[in-house]
Predict the 3D structure of the following.
Amino acid sequence: MGAKIRDYLAHWTVYVPIVAVAALILTWGRDLPPPVVVLVALLLGGAVLAAVHHAEVVAHRVGEPFGSLVLAVAVTVIEVALIVTLMISGGEKAQSLARDTVFAAVMITCNGLLGLSLLVGAARRHVAVFNSEGTGGAFATVAMIATLSLVLPSFTTSRPGPSFSPAQLAFAAVASLALYGLFVTVQTRRHRDYFLPITTAGKVIDAEEHLDPPTSRAALTSLGLLLVALIGVVGLAKGVSPSIESAVDSAGLPQAVVGVVIALLVLLPETIAALRAVLRDRVQTSLNLALGSAMASIGLTIPAIAIAMIWLPGPLLLGLGGTQMVLLALTVAVGTLTIVPGRANVLQGGVHLSLLAAFLFLAASP
C-alpha cells in the first residue's frame, strides 16, 4: 500500500497544483513582467490539465452521470470567481463582462464541444449515437435559461438599457437555479439511464469497461487536489487577465473579446475531458459535459453574480445585442435538429463548428 501511495504522489498531477498555488501567492497583486506572465501561463495550463485528471478520477469513482457534474460545477466555480474578481477591478468596462463570458460559454459548449464530440464520434464510428431523451432535455433547459437570462433583459422596460431591475434579476436568478436543480435531480435520480453512454446498437453502458474504479482514498485525494488546482487556476488567471485586457486593447478588438478569452480559458478542462470521452466511444458522456457546462455556466453563474451585485457598483448589462440573438436562435434551431434523431454524422458536427467559427469571428469583428 505504501509503495502505491508513493507512486501516486510521484505523479506530476500532484505537484503542479501545489506549485501553481505557490506561484499564486508569490505573484498576487503584483505587476508581472512578460517573462513571468509566460511562466504563470504555463503553470496555469498545467493546473488546468491536473484539474481534468483529478476530476476524471473522481468521476470514475462516482460513475456517470455524477462524474460529468463534478467537472461542470468545478469549471463554473472558476468562471464565477474570475468574473467577480474582474468586475470588482474593471470599472465601467466590466459591466457587460458577465454577459459576454456567459454567452461565450454557451456558444463554445453548445457549438464547439458538441460539434467536436459529434465530429470525432462520427469520424470514428461513421455515426455518433446518443440518448435523445436526456440530451434533448438538457438542451431545452440550456435554451430556456439562456433566453430568460440573456435575451429578455434587452426587452424589459423597468430599467434603461439591456439590464434587469433588482426584482427581475432576482427572479431570473431563482428560476435559473431552480431549473438547474430540477435538471440535476432528473439526471442523477429519476432518469439517470437517459444520460448513460450507449453503444451504436443502443445498449446502455452502465459501467466503464476494463478499468477498475479508484479506491475511496485515491478519489478523496484527487478531490482535494482538484480543489487546489481550481484555486490555482482562478488565481493565476486573475494574474494574467491584465495582460489579456492589454493585448485586446492593443489589437483594437472589442471588449467582448475579453469574455470570449475567459470562457475559452475556463472551458479548457471540459474540452479536454469531452475529447477524451469521445475517443473512448462515450459520446453521451461528452455531450453531458458540453451541455452540463452550458447549463451550469448560466444556471449557477447568474445567481452568483446577482448576489455579488449587492456589493458591486454600477449596472449589470445582461441583454444580448441583435447579432448575438441571431446566433443564439440559430444555435437553438440547429441544436434541436441535431439532437432529436439521437444519431449524428460528421455533417452535424461540422455545422455546429461553423456556428462557433461565426461567433468567434463576429466577436472580433462585430
In short: Residues 22 and 81 are 19 Å apart (CA to CA). The radius of gyration is 20 Å.
